[in-house]
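Bumping my old thread because nobody answered last time. Still need a sequence for this structure:
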């Protein structure tokens, strides 16, 4: 398995021995692995720290792996979840996949099969920053930059000489392109994917200053009513 440095994996299992084996196995490939024995501790970690892949056993005391899966899918929909099921437990595997699991592996864990599944999901979820932000138009990158500076729709609209409704349309497109559904997920997505630098204006692009800093903003083509099914050309 090719070394995947700077990739953060979280593993959840109530059995310490299994956690130790998984930590060592994945650690040898260059992965940064953190283990937890319960759902609550795991959630406290993944909601505040970077997680590129979550691996969880299903059957655990108290809150189980399916509960964890559903919660993560709601709060962090971009994090792939690999579920560990019992050998031959097809109904449970189907439930996990229907709940949003990216894949499943069976116990007892086969080293090669397990590593292949981990690498496959990490590579599938890895989206280079440049490729992700390249999907944003110049105007969308400007708006995203201003959102990160905590400006509201009215301020952004005034700076860009557009209507608040138009800014709302752009914000919706930004969220769709980055795979989030609200501002909290957007901020987490930007932070966890390391996009802060990439959303800064590219060479030759000016950040609108006008009403936000007392300086004149750049000329921006008016587009108060975007065409149906599209956004204004940047």
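Sorry it took so long. Here it is:
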């Amino acid at each position: 398995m090719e070394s995947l440095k700077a990739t953060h994996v979280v593993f959840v299992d109530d059995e310490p021995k299994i956690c130790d084996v998984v930590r060592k196995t994945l650690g040898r490939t260059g992965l940064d692995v953190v283990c937890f024995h319960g759902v609550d501790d795991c959630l406290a970690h993944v909601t505040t720290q970077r997680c590129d892949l979550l691996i969880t056993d299903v059957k655990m005391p108290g809150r189980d792996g399916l509960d964890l899966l559903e919660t993560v899918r709601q709060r962090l929909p971009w994090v792939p979840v690999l579920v560990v099921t019992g050998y031959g437990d097809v109904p449970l595997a189907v439930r996990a996949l229907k709940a949003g699991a990216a894949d499943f592996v069976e116990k007892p864990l086969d080293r090669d099969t397990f590593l292949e599944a981990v690498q496959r999901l990490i590579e599938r979820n890895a989206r280079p920053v440049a490729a992700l932000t390249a999907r944003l138009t110049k105007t969308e990158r400007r708006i995203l930059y201003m959102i990160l500076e905590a400006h509201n729709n009215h301020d952004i609209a005034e700076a860009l000489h557009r209507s608040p409704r138009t800014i709302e349309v752009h914000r919706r497109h930004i969220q769709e392109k980055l795979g989030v559904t609200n501002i909290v997920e957007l901020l987490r997505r930007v932070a966890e994917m390391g996009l802060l630098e990439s959303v800064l204006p590219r060479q030759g692009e000016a950040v609108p200053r006008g009403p936000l800093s007392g300086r004149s903003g750049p000329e921006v083509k008016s587009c108060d009513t975007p065409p149906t099914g599209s956004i204004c050309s940047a």
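The chain has two domains: 8-126, 130-213. Let me know if any region looks off to you.
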